[in-house]
Automatic annotation (TrEMBL):
Its main location: membrane. This is Cation/H+ exchanger transmembrane domain-containing protein. The lineage of its organism: Eukaryota, Fungi, Dikarya, Ascomycota, Pezizomycotina. Gene3D superfamilies: 1.20.1530.20. It is a multi-pass membrane protein. The keyword Nucleus does not apply. The keyword Ion transport applies.
């Protein structure tokens, strides 16, 4: 836009530039502080061999070729306006650093968006990126120090001061800072406002000191970020306090000023364009080749190695920062600066599509199976024991009427955790027989010790439940840091810990994990987890507000219209269409664990009550019983009979429920088969369930309306029970054809929900 006549003078007038430059440089300092916070040296320490080999190879080759092309750039462009006379060695060092540095922040975001952080490629890149980033900034600080030094003695003094300052930060300042953090419980409870102020003061003071001694201030800010601890998520929490202001105001201003310094009009002759092509080719090919060969030497296959080479070539905004430092130090002319800006843009934009093409999800799954020895690489056919297991699975999948749910994957959401826990607990069994226990020493003395121990276990194996907690990745640095620290984030997640307690109470084998992924990949992540766990059922709760967010701000209007959410409907539809196992969608409406909002104290109809008495009432649980009335409408047809799903815990659950299948048949061609099916189900019920299960058959021209009317008479009659439940089936072709008009769960579900029946809904889709 600077090419528009009068634009620059009107929007960025000359008198305003000093103030804008000051604010922009402050933003740059804070940004480099955030980059230091994002760099976790624990990755480097735990994978130091990989980090050294891949990082060194990814820097050495472009560094050497950068030194070679620096001779031509020095001879052709060093005498242009805006530069100062410097030695070729200093100029060569700067060009080599600019060619070899990798943008670690951009790299983390690419790995996160492509969900590669947990793959071998992601581990290699995080380890190598940390070392590459640190070495690059050290070399850049050395280069700037040599330029700013007026004599050799001054340069020597600067070079000795820098290592001394680093040692001071690590061995003097960091222990004191850690003592303050432990004293204020900032590592356990998060940083207070005063601790955040202290942390920023350290960053600014460090930047000031490195600027005074002759090194650029960004180096000091980067070091201040490196010494901040990652224990207890401290670095993440500090980043959350600062990142929005830096990312929304300060940093864009810095890059706007960087754009003002870029003049594409200077690329006006063949020689300049030859350098543009040469710089791009050297930057990409050298980093690609170095990273690929080093990764191959560490045991990766060629395609994984090529992916690492592509990722190493990402220059990103860190390259622009390096170039601006060179421009401010008058090492680069405006023409040379523009050449390298074009290189940075081209290499960065090429990284993501090339990575997605080289390392797609299907290739990752195939490679993992091949490394585990499960398949033949060329044909993809299962090998050995895996082949027999695959054949058994295919046979089991064809037996569609007698499947037992022995394992399931559950999507854990904070907004409906109480009702979800209550629903999953129904899959558990009776508690084990209570045995009188003795002191361990007395038990060992008892002759019946072994028998006593055997009695305390339930003979039926528990249902295996794997909970998946999804945390959305945004463009914020803090969420990217959560991805890289997901292994430490999971054990302290309160939702996961509450879910794991469920297994100890309800005879369930419970496990869980947290995954930090973009919202658009939620469905793929859950379906993949269900496939990895060999789950029989994927249980998806419908959001209490219809939003993908787990916000605690819940309004009556949002709860009433939660099925109308386009985004959540798309998420559920994608999971239903791609899942290989049974899928159940649970829509809560008054199930046990639901809370009722207290009436507003400002409402006129409550004016007769004191504010104190109303406040003390707080939140009230709408139901506290353990029995459930289950309503199962059966509309007939071969698909309905074949899509029935059984549970291994059915005999236990049946003691707490009342089942009312409603047969509403309109297709005469299936009438005899459906009648026989219902009669068979009625005869097969155990004697102890005679009084609990009722069958009712009726023929009508409007089966859905008749079923809803019957449900309204059956359900919602006992306000003290644990909540009623309507069980509906979803047939994929019919639901898909109706989805455009009524939603992804089908017309029946929408009509039942809109009818106002006081009952939750469970929509089940059998595996295809």
């Amino acid at each position: 836009m600077g090419r528009i006549p009068g634009f620059t003078n009107a929007i960025f007038p000359t008198p305003a530039m000093p103030g804008l430059s000051l604010v922009a440089n402050l933003g740059l300092i804070l940004f480099l502080f955030l980059v230091g916070l994002e760099v976790d040296l624990r990755y480097f320490v735990s994978n130091w061999k990989v980090a050294v080999s891949v990082g060194a190879a990814g820097m050495a080759l472009p560094f050497g070729l950068g030194c070679a092309i620096a001779r031509g750039l020095y001879n052709d462009f060093q005498d242009e306006p805006g530069t100062v006379p410097i030695e070729f060695g200093t100029y060569m060092l700067f060009i080599a650093v600019a060619m070899s540095i990798t943008a670690f922040p951009v790299l983390c975001r690419i790995l996160t968006e492509l969900t590669l952080l947990s793959t071998p490629v992601g581990v290699f890149m995080l380890s190598a990126g940390v070392g590459n980033d640190a070495v690059g900034w050290i070399l850049l600080a050395l280069c700037v120090a040599l330029v700013n030094a007026g004599s050799g003695l001054t340069a020597l003094l600067v070079l000795l001061t820098c290592p001394g300052y680093v040692l001071f930060l690590v061995f003097a300042l960091r222990p004191v800072f850690m003592w303050v953090l432990r004293r204020t419980r900032s590592l356990q409870d998060g940083p207070s406002q005063s601790v955040v102020a202290l942390t920023l003061l350290i960053a600014l003071a460090s930047a000031f000191f490195t600027g005074v001694i002759g090194v650029h201030p960004v180096f000091g800010a980067f070091l201040a970020g490196l010494i901040c601890p990652h224990e207890g998520g401290f670095a993440i929490k500090v980043t959350e306090k600062v990142e929005d202001l830096v990312g929304a105001l300060f940093l864009p201003l810095y890059f706007a000023l960087s754009g003002l310094s870029t003049n594409l009009g200077l690329l006006d002759d063949g020689m300049t364009w030859a350098y543009v092509v040469g710089v791009i080719a050297i930057a990409f090919v050298s980093k690609f080749a170095g990273g690929m060969l080093a990764a191959k030497a560490n045991g990766l296959v060629w395609r994984e190695s090529a992916t690492i080479g592509v990722l190493m070539s990402c220059e990103g905004l860190v390259e622009l920062i390096v170039l601006n430092i060179g421009l401010q130090a008058k090492i680069l002319s405006t023409r040379t600066f523009t050449v390298f800006v074009v290189m940075a843009i081209v290499t960065t934009f090429a990284t993501t599509p090339l990575t997605a093409w080289l390392y797609p999800p299907w290739y990752q799954r195939k490679l993992e199976a091949w490394k585990r020895g499960e398949i033949d690489w060329k044909t993809g056919v299962p090998l050995g024991d895996w082949a027999s297991e695959a054949d058994a699975e295919s046979v089991r999948a064809r037996k569609q009427g007698g499947d037992k749910i022995r394992s399931l994957v559950v999507y854990l959401r904070l907004d409906n955790m109480p009702t979800l826990l209550a629903f999953v607990s129904l899959l558990g069994g009776k508690p084990s027989d209570i045995v009188e226990k003795k002191h361990p020493i007395r038990e060992k003395e008892s002759t019946d010790y072994d028998a006593l121990q055997m009695m305390s276990f339930n003979k039926r194996s528990p249902v295996q439940v794997h909970g998946v907690r999804l945390v959305e990745v945004t463009n914020r640095t803090s969420t990217v840091m959560k991805v890289s620290e997901a292994d430490e984030y999971s054990p302290f997640d309160p939702v996961l810990n509450a879910f794991k307690v469920l297994g100890q109470l309800d005879n369930l084998a419970v496990s869980g994990e947290a995954a930090v992924v973009p919202a658009v990949l939620y469905a793929d992540t859950l379906v993949t987890k269900a496939d990895e766990e060999s789950a029989d059922l994927l249980l998806l709760p419908w959001s209490e507000t219809g939003s993908m967010s787990e916000s605690q701000t819940i309004s009556t209007e949002s709860v009433r219209n939660k099925l109308a959410s386009d985004m959540y409907s798309a998420f559920i539809a994608q999971a239903l269409e791609t899942a290989k196992c049974h899928v159940a969608v649970f829509i809560n409406k008054g199930f046990i664990g639901s809370l009722k909002q207290k009436p507003s104290t400002m409402d006129r109809k409550m004016s007769t009550l004191s504010v104190r008495s109303q406040r003390d009432r707080g939140m009230t649980v709408t139901n506290n019983g353990r029995s459930h009335h289950i309503f199962l409408p059966f509309f007939g047809g071969e698909n309905a009979r074949n899509d029935s799903i059984g549970s291994d815990a059915g005999s236990v659950v049946a003691e707490q429920i009342i089942v009312t299948p409603k047969k509403a048949q309109t297709l005469p061609i299936h009438h005899e088969d459906d009648a026989a099916f219902c009669a068979s189900m009625q005869r097969s019920r155990p004697a102890e369930l005679e009084s609990r299960v009722m069958f009712d058959s009726s023929a009508t021209a409007t089966p859905l309306s008749h079923a809803i009317a019957s449900a309204q008479g059956e359900l919602g009659q006992d306000p003290k029970n644990g909540g009623d439940l309507i069980l509906l089936g979803r047939h994929t072709p019919l639901a898909s054809s109706a989805a455009a008009g009524k939603g992804c769960l089908g017309v029946a579900t929408d009509m039942v929900f809109e009818s106002g029946i006081r009952a939750s809904v469970l929509v089940v889709q059998a595996r295809s």
